[in-house]
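Recap quiz, item 2
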Amino acid sequence: MAEETKPAAAAPPKPAPPPGPPPPKNPGMVTFTIDGREAVVKPGTNIIEAAASVGVSIPYYCWHKRLSIAANCRMCLVEMSNAPGGKLMPACQMTAAEGVAVKTDSPKVKDQQRATLEFLLVNHPVDCPICDQSGECKLQDYYFQYDTTASRLDVPKVKLGKRVPLGKLVVLDQERCILCTRCVRFMSEVRKNPQLGVDARGNHSVITTAPGQPLDDRYSGNVVDLCPVGALTSTDFRFRGRVWFLSSARSICTGCARGCNVFLDYMRDGTYRYRPRENDQVNQEWMCDEGRLSYKPFNDGRVLESRVGKARASRAAAVAEAASRLRTHAGQGTLAWLASPAASLEDLLAAALVARDGLELAEVYVGGQGDGWQDDFLRRADQNPNRAGLAMVARAFGLAVKPASDLAAAVAEGKVKAVWAVGADLATPELAAKLARAEALVVQAVNECELAAAATVLLPASPAPESDGTFVNFEGRPQRFELAYWPRGESLPHWGLCAEVGRALGLSSRWSSARQVYEDLGRRVAGDLPGFQWSSLPSIDRRKGLVPLAAGTVDGRLPGHRERMPLDGNGNVEWSRLPNP
Amino acid sequence: MAKESDNLLVVPPVPAESPLDAPFPSKRMLVNLGPSHPAMHGTVRAVVELDGETIHGMKLDIGFLHRGFEKTCENVTWTQVFPYTDRLNYVSSIMNNVGYAMAVEKLCGLQIPERAQYLRVITSELHRMCDHFTLVSAMGLELGAMTVLIYGMEARDLIWDRLTELCGARLTSNYARVGGVSRDVPEGWGEKVERTLDRAAEMADEIDRLLTRNRIVIDRTRGTGVISRADAIDYGFTGPCLRASGEPYDVRKASPYLVYDRLDFDVPVGTNGDNFDRYLMRMEELKQSDRIVRQCFAQMQPGAIASDDPRFVLPPKPEVYGTIEGAMAHFKIIMEGIKVPAGEAYAYVEAANGELGFYAVSDGGGRPYKLGVRAPGWNMLMALPQIMEGHMLADLIPTFDTVNMIGGEVEQ
Amino acid sequence: MKRFVGMWLVIGAVLVGLVGLFAAFYALAALGARGAVALGFPGFFGSAIVNAVTLMAVTLMTVAALLTVAERKWSAAMQDRIGANRILVLGKFPLGGVPYLLADALKMLTKESIYPAARSKFLFELAPVLAFSPTFALFAVVPVGPEVRALGQTVGMWVANPDAGLLWIFALAGLSVYGTTLAGWASNSRVGMLGAVRASAQMISYEVSLGLSLVGVMIAYRTVNLQAMAIAQGVEVLGPVPALGLLLQPLGFLVFFTSSFAETKRAPFDLPEGESEIVGYFLEYSGMKFGLLFLAEFVEVVILAAVTTAVFLGGWHPVLFEGWLKAHLDPLAFGAVCAASFLAKVILLTWLQLVIRWLLPRFRYDQIQGLCWKLLLPGALVNVFVTAAAVLVDPSLQVLAWIGVVEIVAIFGITMAVSKPKAAHGGHDHGDAHGHAAHAAGH
Amino acid sequence: MSQAALQKLKERFPDAVTETYAGKGGDDVALVKKEAIAEVCRFLKEDPEMLFDMAPYITAADYMGSEPRFDVVYQMYSTKKNHRIRLRVGVPESDPVLASVTPIWKGANWYERYCWDMYGIRFEGHPDPRRLYMYEEFVGHPLRKDYSLRGRQPLVPERTVDEPFRGPGPTGG
Amino acid sequence: MPYQIDNRPADTRESLYFPEIFRAIGLVVKTFWRNAFFSRDPNTDILERDRSSNRVTTLQYPEEKAPYPAGYRGLHRLVPRPDGSPRCVACYMCATACPAQCIYIEAAEVEGDPIEKYPKQFVIDELRCVVCGFCVEACPKDAIRMDTGEHPAPTYAREGQIYDLKRLLRGPPVSYEKDPWLVRPSRLTDAALKADRAAARPYGTQGTDEYTQTPGFSVRELAAEAKARGEAK
């Protein structure tokens, strides 16, 4: 901001170009100018990307770098010195050529942009108030950036279907659609499952599925993200919140072992949606519908209070109770540790330390969700995000890994009388019923489930968005996720609960953040995670669409929000002052 | 001010020329005036060291009303700042609105329509009158003359009634907007205002007759709270308090903004820089404001009341209700705030108590990156310990009043 | 117009009521005298006891208490307001705010008394009593009405009639300083202490001019007995004009009135209170103790108005139609009319005090001393010398009366003369909205 | 408005004045090195062609992430010449100390205290370097961009205060 | 042009104190006389009062209320549609524009209606409200107004200041002339709509702000046409 009026560095005077086709300035690369700035790109790069590389943004709707080029929105037209007859050329379709001068801000281009926007808006309904897209809508952005002229509309708008359910997850508003066909191309090119198409002509063109055929692809949710306007919206997120109130955290989908990178959009202490986050090695920028909905357990059916037996107890009392029950069985061979592969690496590290040092255990039983479906695109059969991480931790602490069914058998035989379950997910209810017969069942659970219901001591655990942590996906790739909001209710992340249990057992486990856990114990697994830096999250712009609004409010609070978390002077939560005595 | 750093309790006795003038050896007394005290505007705390009734040291402790104005403004959109500026100098809120709007417009390079400029001047001057009425009547009150207070309040409230008709609220007017003002005048408002001005002038005349030539008032105010012209400038005094010291600096004349250069008004100037001059200054400025408002009504032409730049000004409601273009612009402005071009600007207006400046920094986003307020009362409050040195305790109160420190703006 | 007539009707009714009341008081005093005689005491003994109740406990306290309401209503009328009227009797009648009297008393009595921890315990309790009782006792020597023969007894409308009546007033007025000073000192508060110091300094200074201003009256009437003064003021001196203190001693009146104002510690002499500077000597008091201090002030207002009336405004003489009234009325009725007129004058004076109290700004500590020692005291001294000389020249007071007339005319003339600013200032007077041509030309 | 003054300043202090430019709306701005601020201010006040006699409005801004991090801004006005100038002084986070201009203008006093209070920029030679709004025990400087919006200040325990004005805070001692 | 104020010291006459004091007393006594002895003009518009005999400017508040001017920013209300449902579509613009964050909205979906969205919950915390009027300015539907000419009634408990949908939804269904959402196949005929609008009278007198005085909008007929066309289809 300080530089606003500083004179721009004067460009050095250019030598007169030699006659004839000049040799490439940078061999192997293409050198050309955009708005007077010189750009050097690989051959074959289109103008939009080339322009972006030198900080010039060209508006576009239909172009997408992972889809084929349609050039049908006409928003990206630019002036190119090599265009025949001075025609405006679509920047998405044109590749950079040596020595070409591209102009993106000439009056002609500006006029064209205005004309295109006006055209796109002629039939657009006045739906901003009820449209979920407003706030991250490219029509709004570009209108405000490139047009801002008032309407000259003097004809009725075309009336089309307002609420056409395409599939379970996607609903279409045909009036808002600008027919960029990104969704159509996604279905046919990426999914190779061409369920969407454009029907009819002219004003009556609409996106549609084949008659009687719903959009039931298992990756259909991606078309919602792809849609640059509010035509395709998610039935799941529909009307639940306004996007400018949402903040995003970089997170990892917990739906399967793939570990798709996602933005976790949250408001206050609720998760509102997942949006895929770009990572070429893992998920490009897609995710499956099932994963997209896998945030729901973060909000619903949570265990938020500690229980001893069926009675509510303070967390401190419950931890003491749990420790005393576990202690009586420790070293007797009648105690078992059941770990969930849905817990993060830090959770498991902390738990393993307590299990080995505090409870003198030498084996770990692995619970977790049972297998689901798998395909050759993203989805893995293993529905737990951190099974590989669990294996690493077990190896690091020298614990034998056994399946949960063995534990059920041992409990049934009476060999194991006490179970400490870190994470309560089990493949089948029967397994839970078998475990429930244990004399002492200390469960740290995120959600209410059979095992939680059967627990003799139940401690509330927090899911991924309420802590930092790491998941190791099926390929052994460690992926960090970050804290979105503070733990709800009385809950703590597993590592926090393990720290308390460990302290009650006489260990000196005093971690106050996942980072500390990793710094403390991470070196044990570091050999398995070459090159992994705990603090390095890929730095990607956190939000698409709207920039500000963590959330449009004076003190960072949302409308109607009330203080809940005890924070210290730096805005960090004071764990010691969390609501428990 | 050199004494500021000294410990209050060990101020050495003033050396006397003759033994008879030597101060009576007495123990000094430390008295806390405020933060809750009937005469402390807002919640200022003054620690006064007294020798008998004479002030030998004084320290001011402010911050009891600090609301974090700047921090708050950095976290709301440019538009949402307006209600907060209302609460700076809460007696004359529109001048704060206008000052802030001008700072933002300076950043945006925005020209506002002429009618809006006239409306800003009219409302500013009306609020200046409110402020001055409050001051002179409150000075009466603090000297003990209750009747004067009520007369002043009567006039002020009549003006506030007119402003209510215009902007919908008595005190928190929230009237100016980036690019103009929020509303046009109601039917017949001008004529009503002129009648109100007549009444206000009548009340001012009565206050004048009750106070000005009364010897008790002259004794109490003349020669008390004196600040010399050089000192006043050195302390950064502006407005009536500076002019009372003899320096004819008035932002409206020195660097005319809005339409002040088209209006015919004069700047009264005092000589002594004492309470009496400051009081008289306000009485004179009441008359000048009266002139300005009447001239504005005579000159003002119908027209737009807000700029039509769609980047900064909300589109007209018909467009929002009826067209997608309007709705989108409306949404963009409200969701993200006005995108003020990056840069920094300092805009200043002549508020009731002096130069009110806003130093605004934008990073190109929808919210102020930094918003500093140069509140005129700050400098005058700063000088108070020096002004009061050696005066009597009873003079502190009228001086406090005539420098007219407003807690809202000084403590932000 | 209805209200205009109504107000006068109310005033008339009040006056008539007062006449009736005082007639009753005379009768009661006579009964008391008879009773005393019957018991073998002198008659005035009984009438004094009855008068102590009727005058001091009833009349004085009622007037002082009503003054708290009057202060609100009268100040409201001055300030374009309505004043206290939200307590409605039978849900309908505000009765001019009089019910506030009861509400205030109830409030004062039921409020919690808050004590500063470091007070002087005994003196803190004592101070309000000390402040209240001497002022209260001042009223004992004020002659409210003439001596009248009723029910076979000669009774006066006073509690006591000592020969040294004025000296009693000085003495007791001097005592009331203690209450104020102790209140400020005993509460162990710095601002309270400041108030107390101011109060004592101010009251002691003003007692000097208060006393000196009355010396002239003493010389003129050759007495310090208040009743004798009242009688002396009924004597005609300039034709039909009686020898009122106001006529003989306009300067003395001004000095006395000002000084008595200072004695009551009311604006513009309310430095001990100075609610915008130091909150006053009673800062730490609450509940009924504050109420006593507060009431003491009002009692003082009434009493000093009464003394002023007795000394300067002709005492109980109705002045107008006095001869006619005396000739045509029963002595007791005449006495009642006199007493009522005395009270009417007292009310008029308290009203004047209130007007001044709401109107004028407060002095500063040094200015108040300056006013006393530099203006009032010389004025009073001059007055004493002039009076003495005039009386020496003409014991029939004619010369003194003429001097008084001259003084009154001078005061009136000086008041009506208007000082003009030296430099012409034109164009800025109000009402001349378009008269800015001079300045316009200047641009 | 006062390009001449700006020119003169630049000529007089070629090293200290790193840059001059006309800001938004024609404000004249000079970037001044922090070591020279007192000298520059004294010149501005006393030079017969400058005469910026009115006490400046001093405020600061926190450009977190850029270097120098803080920017102390002086808005000056001359009643004699009726011109204005703005000085901007970059202050690094590592050494947030500036020379005080209170000895030059008395009116700079509270503004400098304000900058200390709100931004943690210290002014050397200031006669009364206390906080302005906040109490002495206040932790942090609220207008810094990294000061938490939703944070809580630690409670100050009750204790005896010997010096009634300063309080028991760290500088009150 | 600067001119000197008249700040001369007190001259001999004035320094006698009493002349100016007597004059001031005279002025006040005159006022006292008028106010005490003549009746008050009870006109609620103070400016219009007859001041020749009595100058009192008091309003006896609960009995006499000064009418709030047309543009007064009073208590909020949500404007109903003619059928009684809120016109609000829960777009959160008001909540976004509110500098005090006093508006809380929960949106829900309307089944089988092109409006699609309505506020299931709309709460204004009047204790947090700073009465700036930005919510009204921000509303793209003319659904929230501050034209009630009232202010929040005092309550003993905080809860009383929490205004929910039920308390907010009131007043006449006045409308900005053009309401594009009315193109939905309403249960209301055009005639009934017209009658409703004719019957509906805004609070207070004629408004002066741009919302109440917006001129007719050219797309109005077009919407009707579109509706007709939709029915024809």
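The beta strands of chain D are 17-22, 28-32, 54-62, 70-77, 84-91, 97-99, 122-124.
Chain D touches chain A through 18 residues (CB under 8 Å).
End of item.
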